[in-house]
Design a protein that fits this description.
The protein has about 250 residues and is α/β, with parallel strands linked by helices. It contains six helices and seven strands; from the N terminus they run H-E-E-H-E-E-E-H-E-H-H-E-H. Keywords: Membrane, Plasmid, Transmembrane, Transmembrane helix.
Length: about 250
């Protein structure tokens, strides 16, 4: 005897549910396998001892047009804070206002980004702000920043609260433009907090156009064979930086 129509529907729905569960289980297994592949990274500098190689889930290449209350991403015990710098902090060409190699210079008002970092570390001397770069926290107070090789052009800069990533030798120009964004953020090297400062999607377009049309910048910053690294990397959960964020530090 064949089951009635209600039983048929019941068996059909159960079959569909079991199929969905099987598909989700297989997807999660494959996804975790893919994450494990990201453990590999070369040692950044022989002078610097990297105690732990960070395993980083790739940040999606999305434009900075989203803002939620959760802007902190924790990876292997290190907190990654993502902030979007407002358009008002930039010039018409997409470069940060008050470009300087020090946070505070006479007669120049520091940007929100500089004020934020200065609040975190009053002794911080800043970095050159017209290209994406990161601080090194070296002890000899010579070289205070290093530019990123073929950086995502929505990135303004990265600040590590602890750890040294390079030897800090000012005469060693090989350190400049040597390491990509992915290499830099994977080797946190003792940092407990990493702060990222991003451009909005509108300012990304402005800055990209400036960089792509200027031959002197293209030869250094742009990889003509592979433009993908220059695309936006800001995560969708990044938070717009405000004076209130600085006051709350």
């Amino acid at each position: 005897m064949f089951p009635d129509s209600k039983n048929k529907n019941f068996y059909f729905l159960n079959s569909i549910l079991l199929l969905i569960i099987a598909i989700m289980t297989a997807y999660n297994f494959l996804y975790l396998q893919e994450i494990d592949k990201n453990k590999d990274i070369k040692v950044i500098n022989e002078v610097t001892e990297i105690k732990e190689i960070e395993k980083k889930i790739p940040i999606p290449c999305l434009k900075c047009n989203a803002n939620t209350n959760t802007h902190i991403q924790e990876i292997n015990g290190v907190k990654h804070h993502h902030y979007i710098v407002p358009d008002s902090e930039f010039k018409e060409n997409g470069f940060l206002k008050n470009n300087c190699d020090s946070v505070f210079q006479r007669d120049l008002k520091p940007t929100l980004m500089h004020s934020f970092i200065k609040k975190l570390n009053p002794n911080y001397r800043g970095w050159i702000c017209w290209t994406p770069s990161f601080n090194e926290n070296n002890n000899n107070k010579l070289k205070i920043m290093t530019e990123i090789k073929h950086p995502p052009l929505d990135l303004v800069g990265i600040y590590f609260d602890k750890g040294t990533r390079f030897s800090g030798d000012d005469g060693n120009n090989d350190d400049w433009d040597k390491y990509t964004f992915d290499e830099v953020v994977k080797a946190t090297n003792g940092a407990e907090n990493v702060y990222y400062f991003w451009r909005t999607s509108n300012m990304f377009e402005t800055y990209k156009n400036e960089m792509y049309t200027n031959k002197s910048w293209c030869s250094i910053k742009i990889d003509s064979n592979n433009p993908k690294p220059n695309k936006p990397h800001c995560p969708p959960f990044a938070k717009v930086l405000t004076q209130e964020d600085i006051d709350n530090l």
